[in-house]
Amino acid sequence: MTYVKRSLILFIGCLMWTSFASAGSLPKEARALIDQGIEAYKAEGAKAGLQAWLRGGPLETSKQALTYAASFSQIEAFFGNLVGYSIPRSKKISDTTVLACTVINYRNGPVFARYTLYRREDGSWIIPSFSLNTDVDEAWPASLLCGD
User: Fold this and answer.
1) Predicted structure pTM score
2) Pairing relation of β-strands 82-92 and 97-106?
């Protein structure tokens, strides 16, 4: 491969990588919603965290919430207690929608989550969907994983 082709491929790869901004692009109100859920989870368990995350959104009263609760129970059985978290990347999808990729740290390893945050007409934020997986490739977009 020629130097020019390699340089072009590297440049395009860097553009793709930087299209996912650092968590600094996550609006503070949206970040607060994730923070509230984690704090509730730490203090009162996974069910309290889920209630905080899903409050006011379409999943608040859905059966899907029970599936999430079961997932957290399974994760805790294998990975141990929650010890912390970080939000290494977020992406503004539109004026009303942001994608936040998080690492939830447990005593025996990380779990990867992806939150879709939505700003309603009244300015409040909700989480209409999120996914959780022990495999980063399943939880986060591929464009986030290529790069440094």
Assistant:
1) 0.77
2) antiparallel
